[in-house]
Amino acid sequence: MERANQFVGQSLAFLDAVERASRAAPLNRPVLVIGERGTGKELIAERLHHLSSRWAGPLVTMNCAALPENLIEAELFGHEAGSFTGAAKTRHGRFEEADGGTLFLDELATLSSPAQDRLLRAVEYGEVTRIGASKPISVDVRIVAATNEHLPKLVEQGRFRADLLDRLSFEVVTLPPLRARKGDIPLLAEHFGRRMAVELDWPNWPGFTARAQAELEAYRWPGNVRELRNVIERAVYRAEDPEREVDAIQFDPFASPWVLDPDPAGAVEVATHSVQTFAVPPETSVPAPATTTDDLRGAVNAYEKALLEDALARHRYNQRSTAAALGLSYDQLRHAMKRHQLALTSPT
């Protein structure tokens, strides 16, 4: 499924940020988008472009952190053939590609000092000079820049030009983290859950259990909406029964009772930190059944229940593995669990 370029949320903090971007969109002025990773900075840049008079022009994106420092200027402003080793032919930079449209500079704070100098001239005069060229080229480009850094602090530290910050900060849109968007977590979880259910061809969307919803709302979401989407899609695709509410939530995909030992021997050790999955249960044994009883049916049922509980614990509550170990089909195991009133979902 393709990503839907839409905003999902109803919290005031979120709606205020979107409204601010919408109001700035028609103006031919630079906009800074500030926010933690995964908060949707690129979506805001797309909104600024598509709601502006430049919507029919190009929207060019450049991640300033994705290139080595010595190539950023060539990428932004282009170069002439032979201007440096490896420059076999003339190449247009991102400014020229974005002429008549919008240039989105992501991770702005990572720009080197020389690149900041040249960017300032491009913003002030609407001119860029390719590396190795002597004459500037006029370009009509609107700048939208994004960062997860506090730029005024970088200015104080001498890591970012104050005059460039002044030029780019006509409007600053600060996106709230997901943990501050009251009421949006269940809304987003439902949205991503339904989309994943459609992708998996589920006949309907059963939703989440109350326990799963409580876990989602209690989590701090350091990766914000991007992390939430991964967690929800993973939980849905791992669910064994599309007719039952999704209950198992794993926040850390790397969490495991076993982690690779960093020593060269490559041994494994049991993880010592808290994880969202189950710890390895200790070896258990089922007590021997009584040899005398005045309730044969009750004693047989109690022993069968103890066998099921022990097998489930030894197989980490994986019902398919437990069924195979007991010589039962998956349906037979679940029927036995229902008969003995054992939980059909794994305990926390």
Describe it for me?
This protein is an alpha/beta fold. It has 13 helices and nine strands. The strands form three sheets. The protein has a five-stranded parallel sheet. The model is unreliable at 266-283 (pLDDT under 50).
Main features:
13 helices; 348 residues; 9 strands; five-stranded parallel beta sheet; 10% strand
Taken from the alpha-carbon principal axes, the silhouette is elongated
Distance from N terminus to C terminus (CA atoms, Å) equals 32 Å
Beta-strand segment tally: 9
- Count of DSSP-assigned helices: 13
List the helices and strands and how they pair.
Blueprint lengths: L11 H13 L6 E4 L6 H10 L8 E5 L5 H9 L16 H4 L4 E5 L6 H13 L1 E2 L8 E2 L3 E6 L3 H6 L5 H7 L2 E4 L9 H16 L10 H9 L5 H15 L19 E3 L7 E3 L25 H19 L4 H8 L3 H10 L9
Parallel strand pairs: 1-6, 1-7, 2-3, 3-6
Antiparallel strand pairs: 4-5, 8-9
Helix pairs in contact: 5-7, 8-10, 11-12, 12-13
In short:
40% of the residues lie in helices and 10% in strands. With 348 residues, it is an alpha/beta fold.
